[in-house]
Specification:
By secondary structure, this protein is α/β, with parallel strands linked by helices. It contains eleven helices and 13 strands. Helix 5 links the parallel strand 6 and strand 7. Bound molecules: (4S)-2,6-dioxohexahydropyrimidine-4-carboxylic acid (DOR) and zinc ion. The site of zinc ion has 5 residues, from loops.
């Protein structure tokens, strides 16, 4: 069913899922999780904690902490992922998947981003695991950037396609792969022309701004994330892909909270905390593109179909009602700055059960 846009003031849709979130742990987990759960029925939870979530037992314990932190009335299910390391055990991965603990595995090339020091140094090191994942139909979620110091930061994603992804797809033609948080027209084109087992997530922030935002009148750490935003032509390609109705592109916010102190520093952390208004931000993009009718497919249908999971039955609604996004969200004594802080958004979530 297409998103209902008959009445301009209310946009009813199947409840969406978020196929890429960072919920962190401890006080941060407590502070951020309900912001995701209020909109999204399920979320793929990234495993880049310290230490990383790389065993079934660690994932089960982390899942329990998430469930405990979330308001039960929000009816939210976390979907856990396994952090791939050079010495990850294929049996552990298979067992975790069979037991319904691991939904997918996450590939971080070593040192690509936050807490990726334990990531994979050579893709050949995980070929046995990829073999097993292909056999059992378990998705591989890829942070697609090369990590050598010589490569320009703005070229890292496009080069990852040439150097790693093309061979990976050729060697594992039936492996389900999600190219996460794509930022370039090269990535959108690659996914579009690849076989149906290759898909991509797109974040609200990469749809909303280009790399100029990071340097507008000074250094703007709250716009810094990885992969870093690229030039305008890439943003336009992502907007086209997201709103195209192609089932290969779906919602994954990459909401990645860091405290203001950690962001506003001489070496600030990468990540945009977009959970409080992620769905409303996507609605802004889709409306600007004249594609509100495509939002439900992107947010609520393409993801579960790719993962082989049932679509959510619950309905939600967005109202055309202006909201001003708060400047900060509190985490104990600390604060996080959300995406769109201080700005007005035209759509506001209204739950509709
Ligand atoms: O900007 C990012 N932040 N990109 C990532 O890949 C990781 C994330 C984080 O965990 O903070
Ligand atoms: Zn991420």
């Amino acid at each position: 069913m297409a998103t209902s846009v008959g009445n301009n003031d209310i946009l009813k849709m199947r409840r969406p899922d978020d196929w890429h979130v960072h919920l962190r742990d401890g006080a941060m987990l407590e502070a951020v999780t309900n912001h995701t759960a209020r909109s999204f029925a399920r979320a793929i939870v990234m495993p880049n904690l310290t230490p990383p979530i790389a065993t079934v037992a660690a994932a089960e314990a982390y899942r329990s902490r998430i469930v405990k932190a979330v308001d039960p009335s929000l009816n939210f299910t976390p979907l856990m992922t396994c952090y791939l390391t050079d010495d990850i055990n294929a049996k552990e991965v298979e067992q975790g998947h069979a037991e319904g603990v691991f939904t997918a595995c996450k590939l971080y090339p070593a040192n690509a981003t936050t807490n990726s020091a334990h990531g994979v140094t050579d893709i050949k090191n995980i070929y046995a695991v990829l073999e097993a994942m292909q056999r059992i139909g378990m998705p591989l979620l890829v942070h697609g950037e090369v990590t050598d110091r010589e490569t320009d930061i703005f070229d890292r994603e496009a080069l990852f396609i040439e150097r790693i992804l093309e061979k990976l797809v050729a060697d594992f033609p039936a492996l389900k792969i999600v190219f996460e948080h794509i930022t370039t027209e090269e990535a959108a084109a690659f996914v579009q022309s690849a076989s149906e087992n290759i898909a991509a997530t797109i974040t609200p922030h990469h749809l909303e701004y280009n790399r100029n935002a990071i340097f507008a009148g000074g250094i703007r750490p709250h716009y810094y994330c990885l992969p870093v935003a690229k030039r305008e032509k890439h943003r336009l390609a992502l907007r086209k892909a997201a709103t195209s109705g192609t089932p290969k592109f779906f919602l994954g916010t990459d909401t990645a909270p860091h405290t203001v102190d950690a962001k506003e520093s001489a070496c600030g952390c990468a990540g945009v905390f977009n959970a409080p208004t992620a769905l409303e931000s996507y609605a802004k993009t889709f409306e600007e593109e004249g594609a509100l009718g495509m939002l439900e497919a992107f947010a609520s249908e393409n993801g579960p179909r790719f993962y082989g999971l049932p679509l959510n039955e619950e309905q939600i609604a967005l109202k055309r009602q202006t909201q001003t996004v708060p400047e900060f969200i509190e985490v104990g004594e600390a604060k996080i700055k959300p995406f769109h802080a201080g700005e007005e958004l035209a759509w506001t979530l209204a739950r509709n059960n």
